[in-house]
Amino acid sequence: MLNIERPTTISEIDEKINTSRKKYQDTLNFVHVQRDNLMWLANHALTLAQYLSYEQSPEHNAEAKQAIAHCAQAYALLFSLANDPERVVELEFNGEQHDTQYNGVGLVDQGRINAQNWQEAVFCALTVRDHDALSSLLAFDLSHLRESRAVCPEVELMLAELLQKVLLDKEVSQPEIIALSQQIAADTNPLVQHCTNAKLSLINNALISKATDLDETFLGALNHYWQYQGQHLYADHAHTNFYMPIELLGTACLVQDQGRSVDIDTDFMPRFYIVS
What we know:
Imm49; globular; 60% helix; two-stranded antiparallel ribbon; mainly alpha
């Protein structure tokens, strides 16, 4: 078992958890008021789960899982609306029917959603094994996102397209992987050089090549994430995704479900998700 310690702690963690919890609960209670609350809910839910990874307990773990489930459901609904923007649907969320109608007009062309959101949603669905949300997300036509105003590197959209093919069990050729790798290498954006590169390595080794020993793959991905954090973000304040990268966690859960063990013990990827 490979043990990896997180290189930082969070000051005033209880206050941050309580603040995130309030934002999460407020948006959950008001998803029927306006469509954008679904986006805020997804953001606040994942942030809460990532903070809760610092205070693990049976109660917190259950709350974190529920929050990630809500993140996946909210994004799945948004991308479903965006797939057919003019279609009007009655809002049903978290098992509750609301007397509210939403459509997807403006979600893509106004840049409300992007390829990174889609990836985040997919990895959340994989983490909590929400097969309905995952199926809905995989049915989304990613070509729509080329019309988005959202600032998102082209290679992130290419990576989303690759991930979609892999999860739909479509054949991925080695030239496709090489081409994407070359695109990443040519991109000077530090986020691409570190985080997008880490995700490609993870998808290639864990999901395409299906390597059996993934310790070094996950360790390399974590190193890339923290190099980006240390070199290009505030050294004393990491974004919550660097405390618990959902891309790594979702991949680890899928690998585990495929019958390949993930022998890593780290709060970066809490094991209660993986062996659930």
